[in-house]
Amino acid sequence: MDDTTPPPPAVQTPPKPSFNAENWRKITGRIISVLAILAVVVVILCVWNIIERHPRTDDAIVAANVIGVTPRVHGPIIKLNVKDNQDVKAGDVLFEIDPADYEQTLDTAKAALNALDQQIEVARSQDEELKFQVKAAAAATEQSQAELKQAEDNLQRLEPLLPKGFATANDVDKAHTAVAVATAALAAQGHRFNQVKATLSNLATVEAQRPGAVAAVNLATLQLSYCKYAAPFPGKVINLNISAGEYANAGVPLFALLDTQKWYVIANFREGELRRFANGSPADVYLLSAPRHHFAGKVQGIGWGVASKDQIDVSHLVPDVPRELNWVHIAQRFPVRIEVENPDPDLFRMGASADVTMK
User: What number of other Cβ atoms are within 10 A of residue 144's Cβ?
Assistant: First the structure.
């Protein structure tokens, strides 16, 4: 072996990488990015779960019950006691219609009733006497019938005796005359009896007319009371555009009265959210005009039908389907009526925007 041969080169081990500050920053950044993504996913899932369990909509408006203030009688308005947007209490007289015609009608009905009562009183005072006259007329009629029968029997007995000479012609003539007189007397007594009986029935006739006369008085009194229109509940006058002197027509509204005792929110929820709540479910209500005020509510009713613009026209013999493509299908919304349990009369206005979240 030659001593001049160089020794084999030594195998060098590569240096181990050192975890300096730059590497730690990269690893920390990646971890933070992953954690941030996970946090966003978790937040999205939580928000989605909350929205699914507690549906929310800002497509809601405030509503209240409104009636048309409609007179029940006609005539010119002589007093208008309210102004537009005025608060009224139950029983407050809103307006008055000229009562002159109805007072006259009431006076006429009362006069007719008084006259009828006088007739009834006179008829009742004559009642006993008329009853006696009826009995006397009946007895006289029976006596006339008996006398006629006796005269007829006498005539029948004498007529067969005339040919045999046992009766004279004068006797037969007298018998005929007696029958004629008895017949006339019976007819006169019958006529008298009918007259007295008819007079007696006059009491029943006038008494039968009294309920109708009383009803006429009551109706006139009722119509007179309608000349003053009182508020049926506490509320607020709206849409008042008339003045005193306006002619009121029965059955035609003059203005509106808003019931401030109960307030509602009509919230439109998507059809897929309706299964999350039912009648009586609690809800949180916020007004757009007062977002810091929280109001509690409960579902009073869920709409069961809405008009759809996507219905197929079936007025023809075959369905008419329009040629169009709807790439995005929008869920139908149904109105949900929510009764507000603690409304603030100073904040709630009919038609105001609201935000509703189901609990």
Answer: 21
* Tens-place pLDDT, residues 301-323: 999 888 876 666 666 677 776 66
Query: Does 22 or 213 have the greater pLDDT score?
Result: 213
CA–CA separation, 46 vs 57, rounded Å?
Answer: 18
pLDDT value at residue 261: 92
Class of domain 56-71+257-358: mainly beta
| Mean pLDDT value across residues 353-357 | 95
Residue for token digits 């009919």? 350
Tokens matching residue 232: 């049926």
**Distance in angstroms (rounded) separating the CA atoms of residues 238 and 50:** 40
Range 99-226 has CATH code 1.10.287? yes
Q: How far is the C-alpha of 296 from the C-alpha of 284, rounded, in Å?
A: 5
CATH 2.40.30.170-classified regions of the chain: 56-71+257-358
Q: Which pTM does this prediction carry? A: 0.64
- Measured distance CA(260)–CA(64) in Å, rounded: 7
- Rounded CA-CA distance 300/336 in Å is 8
CA-only gyration radius of the chain, Å:
52
Burial of 246 (0-12, 13-18, 19+ CB in 10 A): middle
Both tokens assigned to 255: 């203005």
pLDDT for residue 26 is more than 90: no
* Cβ 280 vs Cβ 299: under 8 Å: yes
